[in-house]
């Protein structure tokens, strides 16, 4: 690890106040579990209905009153391809409002350490694989989620601008596709893995002889367990202090067909999987270059097969409360 990466930071005080924005979501809840298990005793949280981060005045009131030492921004309007493609104006506007309010309020409160979470959709549609951090702003975005991506890119730039203008040690991380407990299993707004889990669970429960998935099954995707992301976030807060964003992933990809097989096995579905090649495949490969994260001393640990089994178990145990 270079000196530049580690300068001015180190282990966080376990008694420091840490505000996790979006603590009930997939990422925020994993962060909450992780920080609790690491002995943090002063975690600040507000539910969406208690503090709407699109409300600028309320966000400032909260931040200036709480004056947290650390902020992690895991609040966002998030969705899969269908939701992003259907509501681009809402995705752009809400995400810009959430992050601008949160970051401006954190500047006003002079929060010394802040982690902004973006997403791998910030990269150009045709970025060279594995995608390096330097690919940002080198080409056109994937049109189905360009509005969301532009909001996230603005967040990265705001972090850099705050570092320059105010000298605060703020950082940003770009996770790959995530999965795990507390995911969103909605038919209209879920991501790849929760969508597959729900589809195979329902096929098994209904005794369906076949499951038909979109596309050919050949595109390759990377998946990171959200507990791994939470551990990466803590690691970054304690060990990384650069203006440039950092990719967080496994660096390993699988075909969608392999992923579907893992889900079918974890669910115990014994029927046939078919592929509807009249439906779009999306980009052929999407995997992050995680060299910088490795250099910073962190790597993913949850094996995909185990992570999927655990997520299926969580889905069943929490069936009535699952977002769907
Ligand atoms: N899921 C992935 O695969 C993935 C991959 C890469 C990056 N990320 C990034 O990780 C971050 C969190 O995503 P996630 O998957 O955890 O999403 P999520 O499960 O939908 O959680 C988002 C959280 O933000 C809250 N929220 C939304 N709008 C808000 C508002 N106006 N005020 C206050 N709270 C609000 C939500 O509360 P309500 O549910 O009550 O609205 C929810 O608790 C996002 O920045 C996303 O880009 C996610």
From TrEMBL:
Belongs to the NAD(P)-dependent epimerase/dehydratase family. Fucose synthase subfamily. The gene is fcl. It comes from the Bacteria. The keyword Lipid metabolism does not apply. The active site is at residue 148. HAMAP family: GDP_fucose_synth. The record marks 119, 121 as: Important for catalytic activity. This is GDP-L-fucose synthase. One of its GO terms (molecular function) is isomerase activity.
């Amino acid at each position: 690890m270079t000196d530049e990466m580690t300068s001015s930071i180190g282990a966080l005080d376990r008694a420091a106040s840490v505000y996790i924005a979006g603590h009930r979501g997939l990422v925020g809840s994993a962060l909450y579990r992780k920080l609790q298990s690491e002995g943090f005793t002063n975690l600040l949280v507000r539910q969406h209905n208690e503090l709407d981060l699109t409300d600028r005045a309320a966000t400032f009131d909260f931040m200036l009153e709480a004056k947290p030492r650390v902020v992690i921004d895991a609040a966002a309007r998030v969705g899969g391809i269908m939701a992003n493609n259907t509501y681009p104006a809402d995705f752009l506007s809400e995400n810009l409002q959430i992050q601008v309010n949160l970051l401006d309020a954190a500047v006003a409160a002079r929060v010394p350490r802040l982690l902004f979470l973006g997403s791998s959709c910030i990269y150009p549609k045709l970025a060279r694989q594995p995608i390096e951090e330097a690919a940002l702003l080198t080409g056109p975005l994937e049109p189905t989620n360009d509005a969301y991506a532009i909001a996230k890119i603005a967040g990265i730039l705001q972090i850099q601008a705050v570092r320059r203008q105010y000298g605060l040690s703020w950082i940003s991380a770009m996770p790959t596709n995530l999965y795990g407990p507390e995911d969103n299993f909605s038919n209209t707004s879920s991501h790849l893995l929760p969508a597959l889990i729900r589809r195979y669970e329902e096929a098994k429960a209904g005794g369906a002889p076949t499951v038909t998935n979109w596309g050919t099954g050949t595109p390759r995707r990377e998946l990171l367990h959200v507990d791994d992301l939470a551990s990466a976030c803590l690691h970054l807060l304690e060990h990384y202090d650069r203006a440039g964003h950092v990719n967080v992933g496994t660096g390993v990809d699988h075909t969608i067909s392999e992923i579907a097989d893992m889900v079918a096995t974890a669910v115990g579905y014994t029927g046939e999987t078919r592929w509807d090649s009249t439906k779009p495949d999306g980009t052929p490969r999407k995997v992050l270059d995680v060299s910088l994260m490795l250099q910073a001393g962190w790597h993913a640990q949850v094996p995909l097969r185990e992570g999927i089994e655990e997520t299926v178990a969580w889905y069943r145990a929490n069936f009535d409360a699952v977002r769907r």
